[in-house]
TrEMBL record:
<protein>
    <submittedName>
        <fullName>Helix-turn-helix transcriptional regulator</fullName>
    </submittedName>
</protein>
<feature type="domain" description="HTH cro/C1-type">
    <location>
        <begin position="11"/>
        <end position="64"/>
    </location>
</feature>
<dbReference type="Pfam" id="PF01381">
    <property type="entry name" value="HTH_3"/>
</dbReference>
<dbReference type="InterPro" id="IPR001387">
    <property type="entry name" value="Cro/C1-type_HTH"/>
</dbReference>
<dbReference type="GO" id="GO:0003677">
    <property type="term" value="F:DNA binding"/>
</dbReference>
<dbReference type="InterPro" id="IPR010982">
    <property type="entry name" value="Lambda_DNA-bd_dom_sf"/>
</dbReference>
Length: 66
């Protein structure tokens, strides 16, 4: 992924593919609907652990490469 906005778009796209609402995803990831909304819009100051958990729930893996 090239940017945080790409990550945000991917999370939103995959959530919709699974036909989950933001509220359902938040419940599964143990976070708030507001946090999921912030992640999907690339706003807010959500911690990497929360983003990683949302991604994990969707079957995505965050990876850091040099």
């Amino acid at each position: 992924m090239e940017s945080l906005l790409d990550l945000a778009r991917t999370i939103r796209t995959v959530r919709k593919q699974y036909r989950l609402t933001q509220e359902q995803l938040a419940d599964l990831a143990g976070t708030s609907t507001r946090t999921v909304r912030d992640i999907e819009h690339g706003t807010g100051s959500t911690g990497i652990g929360t983003v990683a958990e949302v991604a994990r729930v969707l079957g995505l893996v965050l990876r850091v490469e040099p």
